[in-house]
């Protein structure tokens, strides 16, 4: 029997990572510095409460699908445990995989094993791609993408 699953992005959805955006904005691209600050992310309490309700009260599987590189797994797991975020599975991007469709491919793979009820995502590009591929997207306005929100740009 195929089970139900809810998919959550981490950065900007479960984790408030605005404290480390300065590493990758305004012409900066210090990804090592950006990811080194994962332990200092603040929890997004309403989204964490939702994840817990779906997992513990409704018995849904929870998959965390993040573009964080795989080498961040220890810090990611520590942060998830510290903030009491449940998951059935954690999927992180391979370090050198910069394919813009990486998350879409992962969702297609997940769809082979589960019925995807919702996908919570804050990246406008991914939101648009998920819509194009008929995934049940719940867009989250995290504030991590100000240039897109401010200008009202359509993401293709």
Give a written overview of the molecule.
This protein is α/β, with parallel strands linked by helices. The protein has one domain: HAD superfamily/HAD-like (Rossmann fold, 3-Layer(aba) Sandwich), CATH 3.40.50.1000. Helix content is 36%, strand content 22%. It contains six helices and seven strands; from the N terminus they run ββαβαβαβαβαβα. It has a five-stranded parallel sheet with strand order 5-4-1-6-7, sandwiched between helices. Strands 2-3 form a two-stranded antiparallel ribbon. Helix 5 links the parallel strand 6 (114-121) and strand 7 (137-139). The longest helix has 13 residues, at 45-57. The protein is globular and about 45 Å long. It starts with a strand and ends in a 5-residue tail after the last helix.
Quick rundown:
The protein is built from six helices and seven strands; from the N terminus they run ββαβαβαβαβαβα. The chain has helices spanning 31-36, 45-57, 73-82, 102-113, 124-132, 146-151, and strands at 3-8, 15-16, 42-43, 61-69, 89-93, 114-121, 137-139.
